[in-house]
């Protein structure tokens, strides 16, 4: 699962299209909760596995009290981005 903060006007179609363009793997489902989304994958590509490993590492570091920077996903020709957390 990948958790992102999104703008209120972001649609599920926007989310699905962007994550499919990133080619991180085969999407399973997308859940929306208030100002964040949860993206679930059936399987991950090597890029998706690297992202998952980075998010897992960030989560471990955060539990140790370290400050971490979220992963930034840039989309829409570089005009917009989402901040991704584990």
Distance between the termini: 8 Å
Number of helices: 2
Share of helix, binned: 25-40%
Spatial order of the strands in the main sheet? 2-3-1-5-4
Rg calc: 13 Å
Tell me the β content: 35-45%
How many discrete domains? 1
Secondary-structure element order, as H and E? EHEEHEE
Class computed from helices, strands and strand pairing? alpha+beta
Q: How is the topology of this model organized?
A:
Layout: E1 2-5, H1 12-22, E2 25-33, E3 36-44, H2 46-63, E4 71-75, E5 80-85
Walk me through this protein's architecture.
There is one protein chain. The chain is of the alpha+beta class. The protein has a single domain, classed as 2-Layer Sandwich (Alpha-Beta Plaits). 34% of the residues lie in helices and 38% in strands. It contains two helices and five strands.
Features:
about 90 residues, five-stranded antiparallel beta sheet, alpha+beta, Alpha-Beta Plaits
Short description:
The protein has two helices and five strands, in the order βαββαββ. With 86 residues, it is an alpha+beta fold. It has a single domain, classed as Alpha-Beta Plaits (2-Layer Sandwich).
